[in-house]
Structures are given as structure tokens and as C-alpha cells.
Amino acid sequence: MQPTDTKTQILDVAQDLIQRLGVNGMSYQDISAVVGIRKASIHTHFPRKEDLVTALLVRYRERFLRIVDGILASGDEPEVKLRRYCGLYEATLSSGNRNKVCLYAMLGAELNVLNSPLVVQIQQFYRDNEDRLVHLLTEGKQRGDFRFPGDVDTMATLVFGSLEGEMLIARAHGGAERFHQVVEQLLRLIKGHL
Amino acid sequence: MQPTDTKTQILDVAQDLIQRLGVNGMSYQDISAVVGIRKASIHTHFPRKEDLVTALLVRYRERFLRIVDGILASGDEPEVKLRRYCGLYEATLSSGNRNKVCLYAMLGAELNVLNSPLVVQIQQFYRDNEDRLVHLLTEGKQRGDFRFPGDVDTMATLVFGSLEGEMLIARAHGGAERFHQVVEQLLRLIKGHL
DNA sequence: GTCTATAGCGCGATAGAC
DNA sequence: GTCTATCGCGCTATAGAC
Q1: Is the pLDDT at A109 greater than 80, yes or no?
Q2: SS3 assignment for chain A
């Protein structure tokens, strides 16, 4: 494991801070204290704060969708794929007992204090995920594994919003265990068995 | 309609600001600009910002649960009661095209930057709502109106988290119409009909 | 690329006159 | 109860030395 360059360290620390405290709760001072450089030096890598956040969103999106597409391309059964997809969210919430949520869930909550280029990135991430869920739910329904009422698009919307939104609520009340129960309940509803 | 006193005006404006921008996005300066007094004067009514937020949470909780308990005590069928409950969330999201979410959803997202007395109030609100949902879902299940898999407690958790969480996501992508679709989908899942 | 130093701003909060 | 004035703080961001 080779040493990480400063720019990557800044991104890593900033992401952790935003996932816990939000964009407005993250400051260059906070980052510098962890990385071990002066806050002015951060401006060398990311002149404005929005540059840093934009870079974070791009990196997060690419990593996340790469994993999701790997799940979709696997030979697993639809239920297993869906379980693995939900597992990505569970892993974030459980990571390090530090009350982290999905980067895009936190920014969604702060939507009205963000500049519009960031808003567009957020909307794109939501759309990309719902598209993947539509694909996954359609496959499961065609195979007969999934048996839920209503149309696939609406169900995908519900699943994605519930996963992202539940993270924010579970953090305050119930934590990772509550979130896991909700995921299992979602799966039961999707499978449509009493 | 008699004129509203200053203290109530401050509460009203502060609540609107928090529901749109969050606690850290709301400032005494913002409030004073709308109410029409100087920001120093607000400290007469609420010495510290936390005093203002605490008063807001108490007022919101009492109003909200009073309405919910009215719904539960009505003679409506369980499905109608649930529809009316979800309608409270829809009404907030649709109010004034100003992208408002439930006060407690916003504070849940900001959990890690709030003092612990506020955190306790948030947890209590979540618990109170989930208790009411357990009661409502149990009634519907016993009457045979509701036919969902899994236990009632878990389903109540899912419904509450989905409603609160979806608000935050729907604001960025899909808006009030998306939220309405999700509510209808939730109702289909609870009724358990294909 | 990192440092020190500082500018400029908005914030929560307080003092004291009216 | 509201006002003017001000303090002290943390923040984003920039200038210039090394």
C-alpha cells in the first residue's frame, strides 16, 4: 500500500466530514487538522470549496455506479442482486460507528443552500440509481421472483427514496440495525409473499 | 384574524427558514429581515439560538401529534386514516412551492451538528410517530384491510422512515408529484393486493 | 506545494440608551 | 421591547515569502 498523495487525502477527509456533518459542517480548517497541512494549502488543490465538493461528487458517483453495474452484470438472482445493492447502503451506515450517510443523501438534505451545478449532479445520481433499480426490478418481475403491485418505475422510486431517506432517519433513531430490518421488509414487500 | 405577536412571528419565520435551509442555514439576521425588527431584538425573546429551536420543536410536535391523534380517533377506515396521515407530509412538501420538508426530517439530517437535548427531542418525535403507525397498522391488519408481510413494528418503521426520508429526496428529484406516487405505492404494498 | 499573514464577511451574542 | 453599536469567533479566500 503506497502512500496517498495530498490531494487524495483531502478528498478522503472531506468526504468523511460531509457524510457526517454536511457541506456546511465541513470546513477547510477541519480538513487541514486531519491531513496535517495548513488550510491555505488546500486552496492549492481546490481553489474554491465548490471545486472540492464537485470533485467529491464525481468520484463518489463513479465509484458507486461502477459497483452497482458490477452487481447488475453478475449472474446472481434478482433477489441477491437487490440484497447486494441495499448492502451498499448498509455498509455506509455501519462504517466505523461514525454515523455516516450516503454523500448524496446528505447533499439532498442541504439542497437549498447549494449552487445549481451541484444540484444537477445530485439529480443525475438519483436518476442513475433509479434507472438501475428499474432494470433490476423488471428482471425480477419477468422471472417471477418479484411480485409487487404497481408499476416498476414507481416501485424503483420508492425503493431508492426509502434507502437514501432512511439513512438520515436511522442515524437518529434505530441505527444500522433498524436500517437492516427495513431492508429486509422492503425485500419481503418486493417478493410479494405473505 | 388579530395581529400576531412578535414572538409568534419569529417562530413562524424561523420554522419556514429551517424547513427550507436547515438550522445552520437559518440566522437571526434572516429572521429579522422578514419580521421587520433588528436581530438583537430577537435575543429578547430567545436568548440563545438553541432556545429558539427547542421552542420550535415543542410547538411543531404538539401541533403535529394533535392532528395525528385526531385522525386516529376518527371513525374512518384504516386505509383512510393512513391516507390522511400521509397527506400531512404531502401538504408540507406542496406548501407554497418553497421546497419545505418536515421540521424533524431536516433536523434529522443535521443530527451530528446539534446539541444532545435537541437530539433527544428528535428521537422522541420519531418514536411517537412510529407508535401511532403501529397502532394504525395493527387496526388495519386485524380488520383484514391491510395484508402486508413481516411484523407490524418493522412495517411502521419502514413507512415512517420512507415518508420522512422521501421528502428530502423528492425535493431534489421529482417533487410533490413523485412523493404522491410513492405514497400511493406504499398504500398498495400495505393493502397487499396485486 | 507549503507556509505565514491577513483581508473580508456573516454569524451568535452582549451592553447600554431610549 | 426595541434600538445602535460592538465584540469575538470561524469561515472562505488571497497575497507573497520560501
Answers
A1: yes
A2: CCCCCHHHHHHHHHHHHHHHHCCCCCCHHHHHHHHCCCHHHHHHHCCCHHHHHHHHHHHHHHHHHHHHHHHHHCCCCHHHHHHHHHHHHHHHHHHHHCCCCCHHHHHHHCHHHCCHHHHHHHHHHHHHHHHHHHHHHHHHHHHCCCCCCCCHHHHHHHHHHHHHHHHHHHHHCCHHHHHHHHHHHHHHHHHCCC
